[in-house]
Amino acid sequence: MNYDDKLIKEINQRFTKKNNTLYWVRVAYQRYSKQLNVFFEYAKIGTATRSEQIGSYVESEKNRMPELAKRIKRETNVSVELGDFE
Fold first, then answer.
1. Percentage with pLDDT > 70 across the chain
2. CA distance 52 to 85
3. HSE, side-chain direction, 13 A CA sphere, residue 35
């Protein structure tokens, strides 16, 4: 099992499908640490968003993040936000 598979398994475990709750995954690039961090985010409608870091990738993998985002969406049915990687 590779790192992407473990990440998808983690998302599936956290995606509990509660009523009136929004779920999504966000990939953010930190230019100072040169790292891509993956966050699982959720919010019950009308409350603050909660964010938990569930993974990280090195800067050299940022070109494959759109492909990973499509795979996450396909296999978990959770939408993915890609941060600004420029």
1. 98
2. 20
3. 8
